[in-house]
Specification:
The complex is a heterodimer. Chain A is mainly α. In chain A, 61% of the residues lie in helices and 1% in strands. Chain A has one domain: Cytochrome C Oxidase, Chain A. Chain A contains 14 helices and 2 strands. Chain B is an alpha+beta fold. A 5-stranded mixed beta sheet of chain B has the order 3-2-1-5-8, with no helix packed on it. A 5-stranded mixed beta sheet of chain B has the order 4-10-9-6-7. The chains are: A mainly alpha, B alpha+beta.
Chain lengths: 582, 271
């Protein structure tokens, strides 16, 4: 009888499918599931991108597109936000990158529960189908804003208050079921299936980011889940969790005693960690991109890991900074402003360490590195504007203005997307075995990077001026100069340009998949395990007959005395070598 | 190389944009200069960090870009440097947080001499109620709301008899007089927002919220709803007119008292 030292070494659960359907549809291979997750997320993300283009058209040219009524506009706003945050970013970073990278980077053959992993994807797909179906129900999708605040989310003054909101809440609940199945898998796999020698403090930052983000998700999503269930009950069988006695359409509704603010607490108890569910994987991934392409170990690895853990922990006690002007007990403001600004310290450490990794590096400005630098710039911007909104009294004039839109798009839209692009260019040769076109990659970077700054920098200033968000049109507003309209036109042109530039990206990926030159198995000279697989792309089971053994941390770049400027984690130490340890 | 130059240009461009753009805070019309000051302190601290970090980023990329034969330094940790960076970051945070918390304490502490006015939101319009000579707003409940009683005052509550009802979207406030604005919603969340006053707070159905401020200059200022409240959110406008005290009193005297209404008359049995 064989004994196994780790779960990951046990190849028995690896059922090798024989048919095309078994390999690519009902697949239990984490890599195929990752691709399924990614393609679905990007597909639904494109819907959200088109919706944002339509919103921008209305803001720049009010009334030009006749089908964008106020109802339609608010439906676009809502669906754009929800899709981007949940169904694109969360699904892509955890379901996509998490699935692909965890087993490969820790030296496992697959997730520990491959069947549950497969179910996770199919349930996620169901949540996407339910969400998309809401475009076709009577009254259309909900237009309650992505925060879905009651009472308006379920009263008739809001578009989609009938079917739309039910579909949205159902889709969210289904998504959370899917996430939980995937998330339990990721956490268990990281804890139980690391190969020999892969101690926690030898894991690449990518895995640390994904691991901690998944734990956050497992703790935070239940709050959204119960909020969705409670609102569904309020909406369908007349409970009053969130519904006080109110008037709607001229008549008193049959509710009393509920608290709209309770919903906001539940929503943001999920919603703030959600920011870090997106940000932490991006932090982790970008650390590895910077380190690899600067040929230098990530500066202060131990601090970087602890910063991820501390940020993750603190993210659970800052949620009410989204609610300074919500009418909650005003004394909460002191606590939440303090906890929020404290979180800036470990976050700033991370930024310093990224830049200090570049310092005295040997920086190869390849496309993934360009996106990593783009990330640092946009994240510095978005992080600093967070200090405005986190600091309770500074938030008062800025809350619910375009400043908020500018801030959160920079910090949790643009900067994670920069990392996503960088990561796709970085790992594409391993995933497909082909290399992309550099010129197209650079064009994609420059248009996207400069374009997004042209979109969001002016929004901060419109916010200082006081332009409120979620306005279908400004109409005649005395305090707004005519130049505000010009700003809207300029922003829209930049937004449409950036949107169109994504075609370059898709063209590059699709063309290179078929016609790109064959890629080297380790084109960047990276140390981490996923680059040391026997096959490129990695075969089912990842490692051939023998699991890799890990002898060193993930960042042995440019080690003095070494023959090359990187030493893979699988290379045993030389006779005189004492590898760096934590 | 190119990217280093572009980062520098973006920093210069951002600074130029700040000084050249026509968009900045509207001229203030209330006592909330402290909110502006806290914002401006935050702006300059963050602006300096933005410039310094990005210039350092650009310099690093430029100086250490790959050239033939170049090699990276091997330096896994530098605890002393990390400690210093943590310390100075924490100092920067305190510099921003302290004025913010002090201003917030003032923001939520209503002075004793403030007069009271209630702002009521209902999809998608504003109305207002003054407490009358007794200084107390009469009790209200959703169940009392009707065509004759849009404010939902309880006809049995004597404190409500002298309440002055301004059933239109224009509110006048006296100059230099602190005012506590009690906020109430009959249906969904709204937010009472006058950009020139800076102050802002949600109206929450089922409970009361408040802000306070002292108008510091006369003029007309728009009220914008700043919490999404349904399909006509963007049309939920109102107007605040800041008057000298005599003009304010004259304006207020034109509005009816709740005691004069049919509902109140029916409740007390008066003819």
């Amino acid at each position: 009888m064989t004994t196994y030292t780790t779960i990951a070494e046990d190849t028995r659960p690896l059922h090798h499918p024989k048919t095309w359907v078994g390999k690519y549809v009902w697949s239990q291979d984490h890599k195929v599931i990752a691709i399924q997750y990614s393609l679905t997320a990007v597909g639904v993300g494109l819907v959200a991108l088109v919706l944002s283009g339509l919103m921008r058209m209305q803001l720049a040219f009010p009334g030009m597109l006749e089908f964008i009524t106020p109802d339609a506009y608010y439906q676009f706003v809502t669906m754009h936000g929800m899709i981007m945050v949940i169904y694109l970013l969360t699904a892509l970073l955890l379901g996509g990158f998490g699935n692909y990278m965890i087993p490969l980077m820790i030296g496992a053959r697959d997730m520990v529960f491959p069947f549950v992993n497969m179910l996770s994807y199919w349930v996620y797909l169901l949540s996407v189908i339910v969400l998309m179906a809401s475009f076709f129900v009577p009254g259309g999708p909900t237009g309650a804003g992505w925060t879905l605040y009651p009472p308006q989310a379920i009263t008739e003054g809001t578009p989609g208050a009938g079917w739309g909101i039910i579909m949205m809440l159902a889709s969210l609940a289904i998504f959370i079921v899917a996430f939980t199945m995937g998330g339990l898998n990721y956490v268990t796999t990281v804890l139980q299936a690391r190969t020999k020698g892969m101690t926690l403090m030898r894991m690449p930052c990518t895995i640390w980011g994904i691991f901690v983000a998944t734990i956050l998700g497992l703790l935070a999503f239940p709050a959204l889940f119960v909020a969705a269930i409670m609102m569904t009950l309020d909406n369908t069988i007349g409970t009053s969790f969130f519904m006080p006695a109110i008037i709607s359409g001229g008549a008193a509704l049959d509710h009393s005693g509920g608290s709209p603010i309770l919903f906001q607490h539940l929503f943001w108890f999920f919603g703030h960690p959600e920011v870090y569910i997106v940000a932490l994987p991006a932090f982790g991934i970008v650390s590895d991109l910077i380190s690899t392409h600067a040929r230098k170990n990530i500066f202060g690895y131990r601090m970087m890991v602890w910063a991820i853990i501390i940020i993750g922990g603190l993210s659970f006690i800052v949620w009410a900074h989204h609610m300074y002007v919500s009418g909650m007990n005003p004394y909460f403001g002191f606590f939440f402003a303090t906890s929020t600004l404290i979180i800036a310290v470990p976050t700033a450490i991370k930024v310093y360490n990224w830049v200090l990794t570049l310092w005295r590096g040997d920086i190869h400005l390849r496309v993934p590195m360009l996106f990593a630098i783009g990330f640092i710039f946009t994240f510095i911007h978005g992080g600093l504007t967070g200090l405005f909104l986190g600091n309770v009294s500074v938030d008062v004039p800025l809350s619910d203005t375009y400043f908020v839109i500018g801030h959160f798009h920079m910090v949790m839209g643009v900067s994670p997307i920069m990392v996503v692009f960088g990561a796709i260019y970085h790992w594409y040769p391993k995933i497909t075995g082909r290399m992309w076109n550099t010129m197209l990659g650079q064009a994609h970077f420059w248009i996207t990077f400069l374009g997004v700054y042209a979109i969001y920098l002016p929004m901060h200033y419109l916010g200082f001026l006081g332009v409120p968000r979620r306005y279908y049109e400004m109409g005649d507003t005395a305090f707004l100069p005519e130049s505000v309209h010009d700003a809207n036109v300029g922003i829209t042109i930049a937004a449409l340009t950036v949107g169109a530039a994504q075609l370059i990206f898709f063209y590059n990926l699709i063309y290179s998949y078929f016609k790109g030159p064959k890629a080297d198995p380790n084109p960047w000279g990276a140390t981490t395990l996923e680059w040391q697989t026997p096959d490129t792309p990695p075969a089912h089971g990842n490692w051939g007959p023998e699991l890799p053994k890990v002898y060193r941390w993930a960042y042995d770049y440019s080690v003095p005395g070494a023959a090359r400027d990187f030493i893979p984690q699988t290379t045993p130490p030389g006779p005189d070598e004492k590898p760096h340890e934590h | 190389m190119r990217v280093a130059v572009v980062i520098v240009l973006l920093v210069i461009g951002s600074v130029a944009f700040h000084f050249l753009s026509p968009w900045w805070m509207t001229p203030i019309a209330s006592n909330w200069g402290e909110l502006d000051n806290a914002l401006i302190i935050t702006f300059w601290v963050c602006g300096a960090v933005f410039i310094a970090l990005n210039l350092f980023l650009a310099y690093s990329v430029y100086k250490f870009r790959h050239r033939k034969g170049s090699k990276a330094t091997y330096e896994p940790e530098n605890d002393a440097l990390e400690g210093r960076l943590t310390f100075w970051t924490a100092i920067g945070i305190v510099i921003m947080l302290a004025p913010g918390l002090i201003a917030w304490n003032k923001y939520i502490t209503v002075p004793d001499d403030a007069i009271v006015v209630e702002a009521v939101g209902q999809q998608w319009q504003w109305s207002f109620r003054f407490p009358g000579e007794d200084g107390v707003l009469g009790a209200v409940a959703t169940e009392h709301i009707g065509p004759d009683n849009p404010f939902g005052l309880n006809p049995g509550d004597p404190w409500g008899t002298d309440d002055i009802l301004v059933a239109e979207g224009e509110l006048h406030l006296p100059l230099d007089q602190p005012v506590k604005i009690v906020l109430r919603s009959n249906d969904v969340l709204h937010n009472f927002y006058v950009p020139q006053f800076r102050a802002k707070m949600d109206l929450v159905p089922g409970t009361y919220t408040y802000i306070w401020l002292t108008p510091t200059r006369t003029g007309e200022f728009e009220i914008l709803c700043a919490e999404y409240c349904g399909r006509s959110h963007y049309n939920m406008r109102g107007l605040v007119v800041v008057d000298e005290m005599p003009a304010f009193e004259e304006w207020l005297s034109e509005f009816p008292r709740f005691g004069q209404s049919n509902v109140a008359a029916a409740a007390t049995g008066a003819p």
